[in-house]
Amino acid sequence: MPAELTLGWIGAGRMGSAMAARLLTAGLDVAVHNRTRAKAEPLAALGARLVDGPADLAGRDIVFTNLSSSDVFVDMVCGANGLLSRKGPSPRLLVDFSTISTEASALARKALAQRGAAMLDAPVSGNAKVVEAGKLSIVASGERAAFDLALPYLRLMARAATYVGEGEAARIVKICHNVFLGVVAQSLAEVTVLAEKGGVPRHAFLDFINNSVMGSMFTRYKAPAYVNLDFRPTFTPVLLRKDLDLGLAAAREMEVPLPLAAQVREILQSMIGQGYRDCDFAALLEVEAKAAGMTLAPEAVDVDTGL
């Protein structure tokens, strides 16, 4: 581990905080900026130095970003008060964990290159609970040397980091991943409601699914939310809609039909219109149940997340 390198972090939301905490607990030198400073205070308790703006991190060797949208990412890197807004030093490497468009990524990559800095696209699979369990997955693209420099730090945050090539390749992988996530989540909601309306308790149905060939890490760690109707947000319908929009835009550009993804996108739009904005996207289950004329109740069953 090249412990002498200094690290910067932009974005201390649920995911960003969980990931940065793993670097801090490893004893690394991390300075953090978040637009809402109070959200970063728990990281200060772990040893992070909080800074007022992204530009204050320009002298760090590696800067990590985990942000909510393409617009926010571009602003944090290239904006008037962004990472590159001042004359002087620039980081050696920017590693971005966000799910953003290939266009936004390419814009930042070009701006960083003009300052002699490299960029690694490194979107992730998992939520904060997955990070805490040490089971996060990362897909990365950019120069191979940039990946090799970042790899020791990626391994502190994730069980797997897969290099898929240069440029924006990791972006399309993550967009495809989140399109699949939306389709699977809606499908799981549909069959779970069908089973319950047929007289099967949710916990029993999901226990069978999780131990069948159709079970996965996703179905296991979402099972408690489905069983006990715990819709505290890990990933909101608004963010999932954003990712479906990215996938559908890429599909239009490349002339790839995505009929299932398009339908799920409209289901999410309807869901958001009904007021499901700040909850977890697992609330797709409740929306499906209402469409089936059912009112769900928590089952109060202790369900293993598999994490």
Task: Write a concise synopsis of the structure shown.
The chain has 307 residues and is α/β, with parallel strands linked by helices. It contains 12 helices and 9 strands. Helix 7 (169-197) crosses helix 11.
What does this structure look like?
This protein has 307 residues and is α/β, with parallel strands linked by helices. The chain has two domains: 161 residues, 3-Layer(aba) Sandwich (Rossmann fold), CATH 3.40.50.720; 121 residues, Orthogonal Bundle (N-(1-d-carboxylethyl)-l-norvaline Dehydrogenase, domain 2). 50% of the residues lie in helices and 10% in strands. The protein has twelve helices and nine strands. The strands form two sheets. It has a six-stranded parallel β-sheet with strand order 3-2-1-4-5-6, with helices on both faces. Strands 7-8-9 form a three-stranded mixed β-sheet. The longest helix is centred in the middle third of the chain and has 29 residues.
Question: Could you describe the largest sheet, including whether it forms a barrel?
Answer: 6 strands, parallel
Note the beta-strand portion.
Answer: 5-15%
Distance between the termini: 26 Å
Q: What is the typical, i.e. mean, pLDDT? A: 94
CATH superfamily of the largest domain: NAD(P)-binding Rossmann-like Domain
Which fold name is given in CATH as the topology of the largest domain?
Rossmann fold
Helix content: 40-55%
Shape: globular
Largest sheet strand order: 3-2-1-4-5-6
Quaternary status: single chain
Number of helices: 12
Total number of domains = 2
Overall CATH class of the largest domain: Alpha Beta
Global structural class: alpha/beta
Write down the secondary-structure element order: EHEHEEHEHEEHEHEHHHHHH
